[in-house]
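The records we work with from here on pair a chain with its fold. These numbers are not coordinates but entries in a learned vocabulary of local backbone shapes. To see the layout at work, look at the sequence and tokens printed below.
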Amino acid sequence: MEMNRVESFSDGVIAVIITVMVLELKVPNDATMASLEKVLPQFLAYLYSFVTVAVIWANHHHLLKGARNPDSRLLWANNNLLFWMSLVPFVTAYMAAFPSKAVPVALYGVALSVMGFGFSHLRRAIIAQRNVTLKNISPYQKRMRWKNTASAMAYLAGAGFAFIDIRISYAIYIVIPASYFLPDPSLVESSGTAAE
């Protein structure tokens, strides 16, 4: 099996995730501004989740460029990430239905946190393929490992803050994908060193 098959499978799953999310958007009951305002939470939740999934997809694409082959560890690490990503439509719809309630907003953060840890796990699987110890990985990989772990922990913190002040949760949930919006300039490195 070649890496492009892994990437194609992942792209297909991510496309389905985005499709399921957009299907949750409901057309207003009439053509008034009041009806449009009622669906605003759904739209904002979709917009945020779309950007988050798009950021994961872009970084996933760059990350897989550093993989040597689709061994069993890499395949299952990738499937783990895709599983947690597949929950994004559910937690998005739940949060959109109850945007001011702590439990749905917290569950959203928990799901994104576990997805972040899944991304870190995939990164470790790719590093392991290259027989590089964590002490000897490139400065880029050190930064990205730290950033992935910090992001997952921040999502978890956002989940906790939902029970104190939901506005803090939303702020955390917005800042994290914004920090990934553009790939790190180090990705210009050759594909041979990008995963080391």
Notes: Confidence is low (pLDDT under 50) at residues 188-196.
